[in-house]
Amino acid sequence: MIITAIWPVFALILIGFLLRRTAFPDPAFWPAAEKLNYFLLFPALLVLNLSKAPLDDPAILNLGGAVLATILIVTAATALIARMRGWNAARHGPLLQGLIRFNTYLGLAVAASLGGPDAVARAAVLMAIAVPTVNVLSVFALAGGRSVGLRQLIRPLVRNPLILACLIGIALSVSDIGTPPYSGEILDFLGAASLPLGLLCVGAALKPDTARRETVAILANSAARLLAVPALAFAIGTLLGLGRTEMLVLVTFTAIPTAATAYVLTTQMKGDGTLMAGLTTAQTVLAVLTLPLALYWFV
């Protein structure tokens, strides 16, 4: 059941990869498609689902606590290993992002396939908590011992359309305003286009050549990300008494590959961009095998 539910997700990623490799429809199409999705379609999906999310449900709070605890524990462990191994910030930053960041398109697509609208609403709440958290932690890791100014820390957050969409959706839910009249249908149409296009863009962004560099480090990081981190999340979720839908969302978002956008932040802060691209590509390919296993074991 798990494989039959999620295979179309990876099929779209493969189609995107093949389209990009054959230069169809045009190389310039993919950056424009990613931009359209990032700034319009995907935020519409988040606003719509968060505006209807039951934010007063205690299960939502437990889910948020579980993902936050998982992120912080993994971050602390990675910092300790970085100190022991003598990693500089350029290396520490990508390796941490390989463990705590996640591909939002893939996560929501899998949650929708396996859990339906309830899982999507809870996934949107998880993103509202996790996205700003991992962004801040990633900036600190890439900065190393350098001083991080408030402007440098805040700018990626206030300019992130996903975070802004989460804030708008939460405000609409908490205030009981909901979406304005007739806007829900528009958001629904925009959001429906987001995940298929996003998955195609994930495939188009894969760079197989980069995964051949530092094979041992990439495989070790990928194994930790795709198997060890969801195991830790499952343990924390069990302690907090998460229900099946919440556990599905938690395990899904901790067992999917890291975000392709991590490459942009890494290069902007002079981190090892090639390593980050290799991690993203390797994890996406390996997740075809590991994600069904993680979901089977832990959900």
From TrEMBL:
UniProt-listed PANTHER family: AUXIN EFFLUX CARRIER FAMILY PROTEIN (PTHR36838)
Family (UniProt): Belongs to the auxin efflux carrier (TC 2.A.69) family.
Main location: membrane
Pfam families: Mem_trans
Gene Ontology cellular-component annotations: plasma membrane
Species for this entry: Notoacmeibacter marinus
GO annotation terms (biological process): transmembrane transport
Keywords: Cell membrane, Membrane, Transmembrane, Transmembrane helix, Transport
Protein name: Transporter
Location(s), subcellular: Cell membrane
Parts of the chain that traverse the membrane: 6-24, 36-53, 59-82, 120-145, 157-174, 186-206, 218-241, 247-265, 277-298
Membrane topology, record value: Multi-pass membrane protein
Domain of life: Bacteria
Listed InterPro entries: Mem_transp_PIN-like, Na+/solute_symporter_sf
